[in-house]
Amino acid sequence: MFPRERAVVAPGAVHVPGWLGTELRRRLVDSCRAWGRGPVPFRQTALPGGGVMSVRTVCLGWHWQPYRYSRTADDVNGARVAAFPRWLVALGRRALEEAYGEDSGAGGYTPDTALINFYDADARMGMHRDREERSTAPVVSLSIGDPCVFRFGNTGTRGRPWTDVELRSGDLFVFGGPSRFAYHGVPRVLAGTGDPAAGLASGRLNITLRETGLTDPGTG
Ligand SMILES: O=C(O)CCC(=O)C(=O)O
Ligand SMILES: [Fe+2]
């Protein structure tokens, strides 16, 4: 086993292998299970073209649906999504500091939404940009469970050039700065055993933390 090296995949896009220890992975798995019990369950997102995403998703703070955020999960059960917890803000700040260093402005990072995606062995995610946010703050991505191929492209087109990165359990990937609005996707999940030590028997969890830049109507 060779230690995997941290890598700057594109300007502002940093991969830090094995960043999450067992305790945090376990806490995240437990928390994701609890969030999936309500107020809004995991759902396969319906796309405007009639398709359905293969991943199962639940959101915190703000609910994402193609292609906007709202406080209530209008395409699921209409409930207001669970609050975005303070400890995830702190984790997001630590992640930015890890990726970009001490003077990265991580202290001002205040993610207010998380998209939690569960991939079974056949799930994937097409090339897309995270662009419903009204903030240019970085996206912090945490992976737990089965490895996957994460395809990180460019800001101009869905196509090449791109770099394929294997994301494994515990890996951190941050994309900000010139890479914030780059295309990316998950062409495949690699056969694996989940992460039994973290309490995930199979599949892959990915959690992205983001700043929406949104405020509730009437609150400023
Ligand atoms: O699963 C991943 O690693 C990426 C997820 C993603 O791109 C998204 O939720 O927008
Ligand atoms: Fe994304």
TrEMBL record:
The keyword Signal does not apply. Binds 1 Fe(2+) ion per subunit. InterPro entries: Alkb (IPR004574), AlkB-like (IPR027450), AlkB-like_sf (IPR037151), Oxoglu/Fe-dep_dioxygenase_dom (IPR005123). Keywords: Dioxygenase, Iron, Metal-binding, Oxidoreductase. Fe cation binds at residues 128, 130, 184. It holds the Pfam family 2OG-FeII_Oxy_2. GO terms for cellular component: cytoplasm. This is Alpha-ketoglutarate-dependent dioxygenase AlkB.
